[in-house]
Amino acid sequence: MNAKLTKCAAALAFVGTLFLPVSKAEAEILDSSTDGFTFEFSLPVDGHLKLVFDGLTQDIGQWWLADHTWYGRSENMSIRLIPGGCLCEIADEMRFTEHLRVVKVEPHSLVRFSGGLGPLQAEGVDGVMDWSLANNPDEHMTTLTVRYRVGGYTGNDLSRWAPAVENVLQQQMKSFQSYMKR
Fold first, then answer.
1. Which residues of the chain have pLDDT under 70?
2. Among residues 89, 88, 86, which one has the least CA distance to residue 112?
3. How many domains is the chain partitioned into structurally?
4. In sequence order, what are the residues at sequence separation of 6 or more whose Cβ sits closer than 8 angstroms to the Cβ of residue 67?
């Protein structure tokens, strides 16, 4: 009798987890080596494609986490969607950081950046990051997919960096997801 109760309780617990909200977008490290890594994750964002694109690109200073800036202030963050534009942080007229360079824009569907984000900037590596958007069938939700590929020479093992870099980008996009729920 105890074995039946245990199996029943386990089955009910499993079924119960199917109805819990997912708190983290599932990331997949697609490849990883000492010379580089690629990861990708997707998450749903409230809003139509155009609204989500505008929030992602025009309001970055409202949702980017200050803990992941060079100067400690989210409002210093901006994205210029022009050839050679950047995801930049401008502290004052003499201090700035170009986090990533804008290399491709498809309005309301893709922003592609190049560069090494955060501490990768000081390494001998480069990267390509895509922010891709796709409307869900009901058009009231948009799927945001982030893909980042990094490679190059460094004295450090880049395979060890992949989980930390992915985690920071997950935090940023979760912040954006919360921002869009307002």
1. 1-26
2. 86
3. 1
4. none
